[in-house]
What we know:
6-stranded antiparallel barrel
Amino acid sequence: MRNACRWLCVRRSWIALCLLGAGFLLSSDATCLADTPDPKMQTSFHVKYTIEGAVYIDGGSNAGLAEGQKLIIMQRGDSKSPSGGVEEEVAELEVVSVASSSAVCEIRSSKVEIKPGDVVSLSPGELAKLQASTTSKDVRKYPQAISFSEGNPLEQEARDHVPRPPLPEINRVRGSVGFEYNNISNLDRSGGSTQYGVVLRADMTRIGGTYWNLSGFYRGRLNSRNVGVQQVTLNDLINRTYHLVLSYDNPGSHWVAGIGRFYLPWASSLDTIDGGYVGRRMGKFTLGAFGGSAPDPTSWRYSPNRQMAGTFLNYEGGSFESVRYSSTFGIALNRVNWHPDRQFGFFENNLSYKRYLSVYQNLEVDLLPNTIASAGSATPGNAGTPDRGGLTLSRSYLTVRFQPYKFISFDVSDNYFRNIPTFDTRLLGTGLLDKYLFQGISGGVRANLPYHLGVYAILGRSSNSGDTSPSLNEMFGVTLSQVWNTGIRAEYRYSMFDSSFGGGVYQSLDFSRMLGEKLGFDIQLGQQRFNSSFTSESRARFINSSLNWSLSKHYFLGLGGTVYRGHAQSYNQWFLNFGYRFSSR
């Protein structure tokens, strides 16, 4: 009996090997097609051959079959049977040997006779396992997901091929250009003049897709016909305060540059420069040079024929969202009519924390010769006390501003001038010279109140006026952005000051309004009283007005005038300009 069982086991193994060999021979064509598995998951197969206790099916490892898997055969029963004609399991198989496209299965149980062509399918348990296995194989067919610290190159490459409109600042060209007629009539019978000029306003960014930008405003003369002596008017002085600069600033480049009339971006405390600058970034540092003339009448050391050149080093860092800082050091040389005038070093520092706190400081240090350079000089800019040479502090300004809430801010300032500034005093009433009027320590507050009302005030003690005791400086103003629902904005300003170069009082009242998008006007009334040994213009009153009208989408018309009544000057001036407005958007 034992020998019979042993013989039966050997016989079954021999039968399985024979069936497997037959499968290899019969399916040699299929196995030679490809070794790549079918990507579609196969869950049903067919019986090709049957043998005692085993069957051969047409599915193998390429279909996900493996030794030990359980298969079943389902058949529909007779309608008269207990199942009522519903499909039921009639046989259970187990895979015992697998090739790439065929397999041998042992019959574990059977209710009917298994014939070639019967459909063999995975059992519910094996089906779940095969789905999980196929899914994992599919996942391994794709590249591994990698995270990048500076963006995914594959995603970036895909985004680069998606069409999109250019950024708003690329090749944005907006501005206007026009010609101006200007007439001046002197009331002292000294004659008058007729002037022809040009008006230019530009706001051009990323010109031609590059990193060159042009921005600013310019109004100047082309020619003039005079009857009698030509004089510089208030409008002429204001026109000279324009800024127009062509600058290059590429975030991907180490170089920055600019040419035109500008404040040096890293040291705005310097006088306005007509010239150029160039700088090179080195991490957080910027090293550069600048040069040009300095003919702005609001400059601290104003002279129509002054030249300035120098070099600077800036360090900046931080973020506007938290703490930001910037520090600049430089050396410069001033010349007047190309004769040496002044050598000095300058320092400028900025520190800010969000909107809550800001600290600004600048100072200039003169390098003076060993001889007495300024005693008894007749020019205001050199008046002062004798110097022994060496480094001498010539100018210093420090201000600390604290803004606990958006509607209110406080500031404390200290302003010092060693020598007397030489700005044009006729600009006092315009408010362009306020930064020079308060010497010594002062404090101020600015608040935005309900009903479109804003107020500001500054009080200080001047300790450099030469008086026996410090004098009180004061300034206050009121702004109303909506006057009786008319849309007119009004501002009143009053200032009383006493400084080393003189003292006085000025008042100004300004009205401005945009009537829709086509018409706007501005009117400024002012009067000033200034007592100083450096000017004969002790008292003056003026009205300065302008009207701008957009005739159409591209054309504009402007007109305005100035009525000036002063001790040294008294005249009427009016102008008319016509031009073209352009925009790329």
